[in-house]
Amino acid sequence: MISQRDASEAMIQPQRGQPLVVGTRRTHRKFLPAAAVARALLIVIALVACPTAFGQTRVYLLRGWFGVFSTGMDTIAEELRAKGIKADAIGHLEWKSTAAKIAADRAAGATGPLVLIGHSQGGNNVIDMARELEKQSIPVDLLVTVAPFMQEPVPSNVVRAINYYQSPGWGSPLVAEPGFKGQLSNVNVAEDPAIVHINMDKDPKIQAQIVGAITGLANNVSQQVTR
Predict the structure, then answer these.
(1) pLDDT digits over 71-103, tens only?
(2) Which one of 78, 115, 179, 184 has the largest count of C-beta atoms within 10 Å of its C-beta?
(3) Into how many domains does the chain fold?
(4) In 3D, which of 83, 170, 79 has the Cα closest to residue 117?
(5) Cα–Cα distance measured from residue 164 to residue 203, given in angstroms and rounded to the nearest whole number
(6) Is 186 helix (H, G, I), strand (E, B) or coil?
(7) Per the domain annotation, does 83 fall within a domain?
(8) How far apart are CA 109 and CA 106, in angstroms?
(9) What count of Cα atoms within 13 Å lies in the side-chain half-sphere of residue 202?
(10) Does some domain include residue 112?
(11) What is the rounded radius of gyration, in angstroms, for the C-alpha atoms of the chain?
C-alpha cells in the first residue's frame, strides 16, 4: 500500500531523461482599493471621535424662580446624560459661581463645546453668564433661552442663540449687542394655545429641538476631527 508521503514523492519524480521540476502553489492576495480603505478609516475615526465630542460637550441648564417650576430643564439634562453629554440642571442663583467654574475649567485646559440653557429667569441669567464669560474671551457655542422676560442683549461671544417666546403672551425676541456675528433665532410659539410660560420648558417638541441642536453641535465637532 502506498502512503500519502510516497505518493507525493512519486509525483515529483522526473521521468527518465527529463529534468526535475517541482511545482509551486501560487496564492493571489486581494487588496481593497485605496478609496475603500480611506472610507473605512474615516468610519473608524468617526466612531472614536463622536463619543469623545459628546463627552467634551458641557451643558448647563438654569431653572427659573424658586427652582420648582422649571422641571423641563431636568428632563433635558437627563436625556443629554443618557447620550453621554455632561449636563447639569441648577438654580438660576448659581449663575455667577457656575460662570466662575467654567472660567477656571477653561484656564485649566478644558475644551469642547459650551452650551447654556435657561427657562424664565434662568433664561435671563444664561445671558448674564455669557456676558461674564465674554470678559475672559470664552465663547459660548450655543445659548438657548426659554420664555425669558426683559432680558439683556446677546453678547458677541455667543456663536449661536435660540430663543423660545410667546407673543402675545410671555417673553420677547432676543436682540444682539453691536459686534455680534453669530446666528440668532427667535421662535414664537404663540400658535400653540397649549403652551404657556410655566410649561414651555416641558413641551416635548421644544425639548426635542433643544436636544437636537446640542447633539448636532457635538456631531459637527466630531466631523471636524475626521477632516
Answers:
(1) 999 999 999 999 999 999 999 999 999 999 999
(2) 115
(3) 1
(4) 79
(5) 11
(6) strand
(7) yes
(8) 5
(9) 11
(10) yes
(11) 30
Residue with cell 473608524: 44
167 CB-side CA count, 13 A: 13
Q: Please check whether residue 14 lies inside any domain of the structure.
A: no
pLDDT one-digit tens code per residue, 131-175: 999 999 999 999 999 999 899 999 999 999 999 999 988 888 999
- For residue 163, the domain's CATH number is 3.40.50.1820
Please write the tens of the pLDDT for every residue from 98-129.
999 999 999 999 999 999 999 999 999 999 99
Which residues constitute the domain of residue 206? 58-215
Domain assignment present for residue 34? The answer is: no
**Helix and strand element counts for the chain (H, E):** 6, 6
CB count, 10 Å around CB of 89? 23
Beta bridge partner(s), residue 160 = 183
Report residue 196 as a C-alpha cell.
Answer: 404657556
Q: Which residues are CB-contacts of 56 (< 8 A; sequence separation ≥ 6)?
A: 111, 112, 113, 221
